[in-house]
What we know:
Largest sheet: 4 strands, mixed
Low-confidence stretches: 1-5, 80-84
Number of helices: 12
Radius of gyration: 20 Å
Amino acid sequence: xxxxxxxxxxxxxxxxxxxxxxxxxxxxxxxxxxxxxxxxxxxxxxxxxxxxxxxxxxxxxxxxxxxxxxxxxxxxxxxxxxxxxxxxxxxxxxxxxxxxxxxxxxxxxxxxxxxxxxxxxxxxxxxxxxxxxxxxxxxxxxxxxxxxxxxxxxxxxxxxxxxxxxxxxxxxxxxxxxxxxxxxxxxxxxxxxxxxxxxxxxxxxxxxxxxxxxxxxxxxxxxxxxxxxxxxxxxxxxxxxxxxxxxxxxxxxxxxxxxxxx
Length: 262
């Protein structure tokens, strides 16, 4: 039997944390879907009308995950108590932040557009089962290959309010409306994720997209838990499965918009 006492001798720590992050994203997606069930149906309704086999399997999976992560949590070192929470931003400050985000995304689009090129035929062939030909023909990409997207100036104001902005210099890609910048080189998963955001922006409009993103970030204080991001990560996870299913990203986004899940 394998011993787990010397994990760092057997497994790459970066690989471990990468897989941990992917698992977290899947959990966030499941949490978001379960939250929508909670909003629309009572526990009595689900128990009475829901398929019993699905309910039992879901409950078993949730209980197993709770036991697994609870056991890990007990082994975590104790941390110092958190400082008093920062004051919540005002409605005006949130609106201002949404304006900063939309202005930044539009400005960076104009910045990178002259050096960006169309998707290759190979990329289009990989993505066409999920995205419209119109979108795939419109999107432009640029690979920075070691350079990094500039950190926006308004991040300093966000930190002053007690928020830690996303580490965009470490992200695989960033979507500036219909221009995608890759901090390193293009990867299929990062491209898929970026294209989901492009679809969200097309359907919602840039200003509404920025407004929803900021409002969610203010509530969750974490980039990974913003529903716009959760949905993109979730769909990208479906895309990279060993036997991926074909689906329309536009239909998924429209459904989330109609259900007010963003």
